[in-house]
Structure formats: structure tokens, C-alpha cells
Amino acid sequence: MRFFIRLSFHGANYSGWQIQQNANSVQAQLERALSVYLGENIGVCGAGRTDAGVHGINYVAHFDSQHIDLSQKHIGCVYKLNAILPSDITIHAITPVAEDAHARFDATQRSYAYYIHCQKHSFVSDVSTFLPYTPNIEAMNRAANLLLGTHDFTSFAKLHGGAKTSICTVSEACWKPLHPDAADISAFPLQLFPPEAFVFHISADRFLRNMVRSIVGTLLEIGRGKMAETEILDVLAKKSRSAAGNSVAARGLFLTKVLYPYPIA
């Protein structure tokens, strides 16, 4: 029987989601925990790979098991698996799905959030990127708005990333202030952040490797006045990674949501 598993992870200690030789990964830890608990050799397929150091909130994966009663034992199963897993990976739910449901190929939208803070702060350095200046958020939002729709995002993709196509459809791309009065669902208590903090939200049907981090880096160049807002269209048109800005650090990036054409718990 096939199950969807919903989990969150702090990515600092991992080389990313996907199993790699000689490196720790979220997928490897999850497969180990499931195999130990279920007494089976369990393979897990995730909604998509994440770069080293990137975090996940409500990440979705699927696995197959002969234990068809997992859904009836949901609370105890989740509790015991979380006891096996390291503290920086947390399972929230395990849900039975159709045998052909697929965590990666069935996903219709993925959403990311990138956090920055503009005042030195002691408690958010591993989940947000510090900038020693305050960027022009209005200019960055005008530029981000030009990314909406269907475009070729080759310029924002990691070279030789292996994607069959670089065409993506972006449905959301905007910066918001991050403070208790802001209309924002945060990954963590807003009180942890200094007053000058912001989050970038972006959603699309698919993402290329390194795409979000290079988009954020380019928008920050615009926010510092080093690029004009409309130059982001030139970056898209050139279809060259060298045309975009530098990628920002992975620590501020969270995969926050994966949507499917059917309900999942």
C-alpha cells in the first residue's frame, strides 16, 4: 500500500533531500527510520530535491509498505518514527493514498520562502540571511512582478542541472515585511526576528536547481540599485547563468508548500 508522508526538516546538517554518496541527507535518514520501524526495506520518493542547507516545511514524500494498518495506528506510528529520527527532522502525518499517487510527478505547485534580516541578530542566523543594509523592497517587488507567468528560466538555473526543460510558470513572487503586524504565515515565531526583516514568497508549477536562490540574489542586486528593475527581463532573455546575480546562501530558504490535485492530510 502507498502512503504519503508529510514532514519538516532543518537543513543545516544535510547535503539536501536526495541520497548522496559520502554525505548525509534527509531522504537517507527517513528511509533508515521507516525501515527500522516497519521491518522492511523502505524506499522513499520526495516531492523534489533541495540543495544542501535548505529547509523544508510540510515537505511531502511517498513510500510503499506491506503494513496496510499504518493509517489506523497513525498517532503511535508518527510518535515512534519521530523518536527514531534525529531532532531536526519531524514527521507530521502519514496518509494512505492511491497506489499510483506520486509525491513528485503529481505535484501541481511548489512554494518557497526566503528570509532576510537587516540588523545583526543572535537567534535567526541559521534560518535567515543577514544583510548589512536595507534593500529597496518596492523596487524588488516591481521586478519580481515581471517574473510572473510562463518563462524560460535558464538564466536562473544551475549549469548542467539536468532538467529536460527550463520553462516554468510562476504564479507568485513578492517580498513582504516580516513583523507581528504583517499578514504573513511565518515558519517560526516572528518575535525572533529584528524589526528590519523580510520574506520573499515564490510559487510555481516547477523549479529548476538553484532557481530560487539565484532569483533572490538578482532581486537583491536590484534592491541595492546595482541593476534596474526592468533588467530582469534582459536576464531572462539572455538564457545565460552569468547574466543573473549571485546565488544567496541556502540557510534562508524554505520549501513551504506542495500542492496536489487531490487532498492530502
Question: Care to describe what's here?
Answer:
The structure is a single chain. This protein is of the alpha+beta class and 265 residues long. It folds into two domains: 2-97, Alpha-Beta Plaits; 109-259, Pseudouridine synthase I, catalytic domain, C-terminal subdomain (Alpha-Beta Plaits). Helices cover 20% and strands 27% of the residues. The chain contains five helices and ten strands. Strands 1, 2, 3, 4, 5, 6, 7, 8, 9 and 10 form a ten-stranded mixed sheet that branches.
In short:
With 265 residues, the chain is α+β, with helices and mostly antiparallel strands. The protein has five helices and ten strands; from the N terminus they run βαββαβββαβββααβ.
Describe the SSE topology.
Blueprint: E1 2-9, H1 26-38, E2 44-46, E3 55-64, H2 74-84, E4 89-97, E5 109-117, E6 129-130, H3 137-145, E7 149-152, E8 167-177, E9 197-204, H4 211-223, H5 231-238, E10 253-259
Parallel strand pairs: 3-10, 5-6
Antiparallel strand pairs: 1-3, 1-4, 2-3, 5-9, 5-10, 7-8, 8-9
Helix pairs in contact: 1-2, 3-4
What distinguishing features does this structure have?
265 residues; alpha+beta; Alpha-Beta Plaits; 2 domains; 5 helices; globular
Superfamily (CATH H level) name of the largest domain: Pseudouridine synthase I, catalytic domain, C-terminal subdomain
Strand elements, count? 10
CATH class of the largest domain: Alpha Beta
Report the CATH topology name of the largest domain: Alpha-Beta Plaits
Derived structural class = alpha+beta
Whole-number total of structural domains: 2
